[in-house]
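Friendly challenge for the regulars: who can give me the structure tokens for this chain first? No prize, just bragging rights.
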Amino acid sequence: MTAVEPESGVGCLTAPLILWMCVAELLSMLGTFAFPALLPRFMAEWQLTHTQAGWINGAYFAGYAAAVPVLASLTDRMDGRRVYLAGAFAATLSATGFATVVQGFGTALVFRVLGGLGLAGTFIPGLKSLVDRLPTDTQPRAVALYTAAFGLGTSLSFFLAGELERLAGWRWVFGLAAAGALLGLGLAAVVLHPLPPREIAGTGRHLLDFRPVLANRRAVGYILAYAAHTWELFAFRSWAVAFLTYSAGLSAGFGRAWAPATVVAIAGLTATAANVGGGELAQRFGRQRVVIAIMAGSAVYGAALGFGAALPYRLVAVLTVLYGCLVQGDSSALHMGTVANADLRLRGTTMALQSLVGFTTAAVGPLAVGVALDISGGGSTPTSWGFAFLAMCWVGILGPVALRLARGETARG
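First reply, four minutes later:
Bragging rights claimed.
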């Protein structure tokens, strides 16, 4: 599948298309991290263990991993716009369920899985739909901006959840998320004009036939590195508020501006800039070199952070924000590495495999942290949180190893 060229009439609309698709993504993500943002509240109200909380956090990404191979692969056979709209509708239903019927562990698990299905239908299919409508020379920065918008969506989800829960209660948090996802659906329906019917190469293959992708060693290297990245990233996002809440409890006070959900929202905002900056550095100095440096630094830094929970809370908050920058800084470069090394006829299938592998580890990472907390003292000591962060970060060191498979890639940008 090739991108639409400028003479088709899309080129002159490149900037608005990228902008509005980023906005649609932001709106669809308002409920994505609302549960982790309010995790201490739910653990107290529903009497959850850390392991149960890990299951609910991981269920979102498990739903994503289960659906994305089919949904992303479908974008090699049809206009991704149709998949995106269905995904946005699923995100709307998930948030609506939390706003109205969720009562505890079981129902939360079900609607978190549905939310993961919604993300599976919007994130990668949205990126694929965007790339298919852009000229080749604009694709790297479009990928960087779109993945950066994911980070910004994370920040909005954390911040709005923390603020609105304080003012109106947690069900209104998810009501707002449902309205945002529905608005994002409408916006995407307007800005993603349907592509003309065309014959798509490779439609004779089985929908989930990943063998041609697995034969592409350079793409597989980036896919495995992305899996290490998502384990660490989503384990951090799932447990960051709980970690900061514990650290804050060891201090006398911190004020609203330093509230844990607000700090994690700030971490997401700065990580958005780090994501774009990492993409620019990758184009200038070489993608593999930059990704390896960021992943190695993130793993070492994060492993030390958990053991510092007893430091002054504001210092811990600042260190957490910096960690968020590190763990997000390689995201766009990893996505672009997969896209750049994919067979054009199999771009959707390659991105599907990337998401399947990456979000499988994203589902396991939060659960691993919860188990580590329960077996090391229930998160009641800095040592317990230190072991939790070790469970979070150790996989990150495997990313640079995986990138050895991508040696000799043709694209640097």
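Confidence is low (pLDDT under 50) at residues 1-12, 199-204. Residues 12-195+204-406 form a domain with the Growth Hormone; Chain: A; fold (CATH 1.20.1250.20). Your move, everyone else.
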